[in-house]
Each structure stands twice: as C-alpha cells, then as structure tokens.
Design brief:
Layout: H1 2-13, H2 19-37, H3 47-61, H4 65-69, H5 76-104, H6 112-126, H7 130-141, H8 145-169, H9 173-181, H10 186-220, H11 229-237, H12 241-271
Length: 272
Amino acid sequence: MTDTKKTILDFYESRPRRMAYIWLIVVIILGLCWWSSSSLSGIHMTTQGVRMAQSVLDGIIHPDTKLLFEMGTQGVPYLLLQTLAIAILGTIVGAIIAIPLAFLSSVNIMPKPIAYLFRLFIMAIRTIPSFVYALFFVGVVGMSPSAGVLALGLESIGMISKLFIESIEDLDTGILESMDAAGSTTFQKIRFGVLPQLMPDLFSNLLYRLDMNLRNASILGLVGAGGIGAPLIFAMNGQMWPKVGSILIALFVLIVLVELISSRIRKVLTAG
C-alpha cells in the first residue's frame, strides 16, 4: 500500500507545471475583454428605444389573431410554411454539394495536396455570410424564395463539409481492413463498412444545420429572398405591433417544434 501511495505521489510531483500558461491565457482573455469593451461605450438606452421595446412586448401579449390563423398567402401559417420549405431545401442543396466535397477534402482518402486544395475552396465559401449570398441571388433569379434556397444552400456547404470531413477522418479503418482481408468488394466496404459509421453523424449534422437555416431563412426575407422576414420588417416599420407579435409568436412556436423533433431524431441516431 505504501509503494502504491509513493507511486501516486511521484506521478503527482512529476505532473506538468502549466500555471504560467494558464495565467498567460487568463491575462490575454482579460486584455481582449477590456479592449473589446471600448466598442460598447457608445451604447445607451433611449426613450424611443424603450417605447419600441414596450410596443413589441405589447404586440406579443395582444397579437393579431386574424393574421395568425389566416390561411391565405398573406397569413402567418403560409409564410411559416414557406420559411420552413426554404430552410429544408437549402439544407438539402448544401448537403448534395457538401458530401462529395468532404470526401475530396479528407486526407485519409485523397492525396494531401488535393485535399488541402478543396479545403481552401470550402473555406472560401464559408467566408461569405448568407445575407450577402441572398443579395447576390436576388439579383440573379429575382425576389423569390428561390434566392433564399440558393443562398442557404451555398452557405450550408461550408459547415456541412467541415463537420463531415471530421467524421470521415475519424473512420475506424480496422473494419475496412478486416473486410478487405475477407475479400469484400469496394461496394460492400462502402455499404457495410463506411456508411454505417458515417450516417449517424451526417444526419445529426444536417439536423443541426437545418435548425440554423430555419433562423437564417426568417431573416433573408428582408432582402426579398422569400419567407417571413419581409412581412416582419414591414410590420415593424409601419409600427403594426399586433402583427409583429403574431409573427414573432409563430416563429417561436415553429423553432421550438423543429428543435424538439430534431433533438428526438438525434437521440435515436445516437442510440443506433
């Protein structure tokens, strides 16, 4: 027992001394916080801002129920359905392009120069926000939901590719080597060795991206890319607070439902 205790104490005494690095990181973080706080010095609450916040809150408490349950093309249900469709199609378009790019960018599948070249291409796509893509596609295809789908699809490529590359590079190659030794064909190795390892991560990443695209789709309407964003900003500019409240309530309900469903699906995928 004494020898075990002595061994534990020896390991403890020989542990890496990292307090200097920890204090350096703390000082850097505090310095960044102090430097960043200078941009907040001009922020102050105005009387007009307080009144607007109160008006939005009052609109949520007293929403326009007629608009909230109207089934026409100007009603909230139709606009929410359009927003959801834009988010789903944008995610699918992004996934269709991102999956081949992820395979081409994986160093355990492709030669490193080729893999890094495709990674550079993916990084270039990720640098541009979806709002800029939406402005571009509105000019190309006009003010329509198609512009929102294309903008979200292009924006989704970067994140889906990055996460899928990590999944591909974490593949258990021992399974593939065993199947190769057993005489399996390439199709069999992909079908029974690669896809079972990748599919749970792929669907989980797609659900996460769909959740992000749903929020982005509600904003892209501001530039004419379809969805519920344009009616929301028009209602706020016109100070139609009950209408604003109806749209915000509907958005909240939709996002909560999508989050609950996607969380449930992710749990099923994780459990296998």
